[in-house]
Every structure is written in structure tokens, then in C-alpha cells.
Amino acid sequence: MRLSPFAITLIALTAAVPALAQSPRPPIDAGPPNAPSQTPAFEGQTRAPQPPSDANVTMETVASGLPQLWSLEFLPDERALVTAKRGEMYIIDRQGRQGPAISGVPEVDARGQGGLLDVALAPDYAQSGEIFFSFSEPRGGENGTSVAGARLVTDDRGGGRLDNVRVIFRQTPAYAGTKHYGSRLTFAPDGTLFVTVGERSDVPIRDQAQSLASGLGKVFRINPDGSIPNSNPFVGQGDAQAAIWSYGHRNLQSATLDGQGRLWTVEHGPRGGDELNRPEAGKNYGWPIITYGINYNGTPVGQGITQKAGMEQPVYYWDPVIAPSGMAYYADTAIPEWRGAFLVGGLQSRGVVILHMDGNRVRYEERLPLQARVRDVKVGPDGAVYAIAEGGGSEIVRISGGR
After folding, report:
1. What is the rounded average pLDDT of the residues 380-393?
2. Cα–Cα distance for residue pair 236/16, rounded to 1 Å
3. Is residue 145 a part of any domain in this protein?
4. Under a CB-based contact definition with an 8 Å cutoff, are residues 399 and 58 in contact?
5. Strand, coil or helix: 127
6. Which of 67, 151, 316, 371 could form an SS bridge with 163, CB 3.0 to 4.6 Å?
7. What is the pLDDT of residue 19?
8. Residue 342: pLDDT above 50?
9. With bands split at pLDDT 50, 70 and 90, how would you rate the model's confidence at 1?
10. How confident is the model over 172-182, as a mean pLDDT?
11. Which of the following is catalytic: 180, 249, 268, 356?
12. Active-site residue, 268 included
């Protein structure tokens, strides 16, 4: 039996269904590249064709009038747990109503790109009630991305509290900036927790993305209690931070597992150079030495190179950018055209970017416009896709299979 989605419907739109075609359509016209002299390392690394036809979907707004949200996670009873950038956590019921703020959330530094960021349920949430969340933590005039665990205790008013709040991870060094915190939380099949962070943006501190002694520009892998798995690639290697899984990243705001339980991420590039990667243990993903983009002022990043020995190529990149935020893997059948695809929220592209995969390569790129910045994307228990669309505040849009 299908679980019930949110009940309130404010507006419903059906995506146009183009005539069936037997071959792919040309790539999406995203405009000229910022770095026209750069060329992909292999065919299909950028500007993949569109699928022969777009998915037949219906869109409806199921919750509106919300504060600026950052992430969404479904609870076992189908309600949604959401984080607000300014530092609050709420439960949205199945009728789209926002409950009172959950108490016990620690202080956040919400300036710039900071705030209360991602939230994830523990794999044993149904028994433990444990959740984990990332946030930009104030640290005496500086700040950094931190991860905390807590027990969520709900009440009959639609709110609740956090008990036993404890910080289990702190990105170091701290820094007195307001950009590039990351961050997404993804539990691996073995119960370890992947934590993605940014490299804090500024020159020269962004260079620490290449340093194993620094926690900037990394994917980390930790245990839920904050300890370090012995199987991490840099355990016991000099001054390397043992929590590091992969390095050389810019600003990672998208992460999910595929159908094989492997981690995939999408990170922000500068002007051009957003990247889809499959981070593997111990590997270097190149930032800021190699990139398919340029600085915001139009100058080359470093030497302006896109390849270097010992550094991984992105599976796919965008120039111009989509500005990725939030990501899900679609394994359901309710929208059959998207089965096996990655769904990526686009802040700049103002919609959901659908990446149809062929093994470890992007076969097609499809886009579903929402006419709003998309901050997070999740697959609901009903098989529909739920997107946080933001303007002055936020609304939640439900995307379901066409009828």
C-alpha cells in the first residue's frame, strides 16, 4: 500500500510531455562557457544530451510560508524534519503545517552562507530516536563546520526537543570567514557517516584543500560516536587528519548514495566547474590546482589547468554552473523515467537537474524548472520527489508521476 503524501495542495502543474523520440535530444542550451578554451578530458564529461523525452510529472506546492530552509528529512511517520538556516529545526506535518521550533538546537553563526545546515536520521532512528545535524559553529570570533548528534523527542503539539546534544566532529582549523561551510551528511551502508565540508573560499586559505593536515575542502568519514574508523585511508599517516576520506574539494553541498551504496557528491565550482564526483578513499580531486572554471573576476584559477597526474577527473562538470545544493538517488518506480538517476537541486539553474546514468558516466541530463532556487531534494516514502524551493522564505514542492 502506498503511504500518504502531504495532503494540502496549493497549486498543481503538469510538465509538458514532448513527442516521443527515438534518439537523444541536443544538450541543454545553458549559454556560453566561462572558460571556452578548456576542453573535457573525455566524451560526455559535460553537456550530455537530453533524454529522448522528459519525464511526465505533476508538481504541487505542499507547504509554504516557511522560513529559509536548508534541508529536509522524512521521519518514519511521514512527517518532515527540516532545518532553517537561521538556526531552528521544525517538523512539517502531513498537511503541510509547520510545528513550533524544536528546543535544544545549539547556537549557529548564520552570517553569510552559515547556519543550521544538513540533518540526517541515524540508521536505527526508529529505535534510538537519534538524529545528526551539521552547522556553522561559533568559535570565539572564528567558526567552522561542526556535526552534532542528539535524541529527538517529539510532543503532541507538533514540536519537540533535542536531548543529549553533543558535538561529535569539528572541522579544523576554524576561520573568521562566512563562506563555504558545505555541508551534507550521508550514512554509508556500514553505519559510518560521511561529512562533506567546504574550503572556506578565500585566497590563500582555500589552498588547504590540498593539505592532509587541514580539514578544509574534504570529505570525512567518522563513526556515529565521533571516533575514526580504522579503515580510513590516512589513519596513522604523519600529521594527516585521520577522519579524511578524500580531499581537494571546493564546496560540497550535495551528497547521496547510489543503488550500490557508493558515495556521490556534487560540489560548487567558481565561475564554471561544478563537479559530479564519486569520492573514493584517499583520492585527490584537484581543487584549487585543477578545475573546469575560472575565478569570479575572470582570471584563471592557479595555472588555469584542468588535468594533472595524481588528481581525479570529475565524472561530469557544468560550465556555466548549476550551483548545486541537495541531492538524491531515485530508486523508486513512481516516476519510472527517473529510476536510477541522480536528482540535484540547482540554485542557479532554478530547478531540479536529473542525471541519467550509464554505469559511472552521465548518459543524459534533464532539467525540471521550478522557477526558484532549489536547496534540497529528497525522495519521500510515497515515491514522490520533494524539493525545497527558496525565495524570501521557502516552500516544499512535491513532484510525482504524471497521470
Report:
1. 96
2. 56
3. yes
4. yes
5. helix
6. 151
7. 39
8. yes
9. very low
10. 98
11. 180
12. no
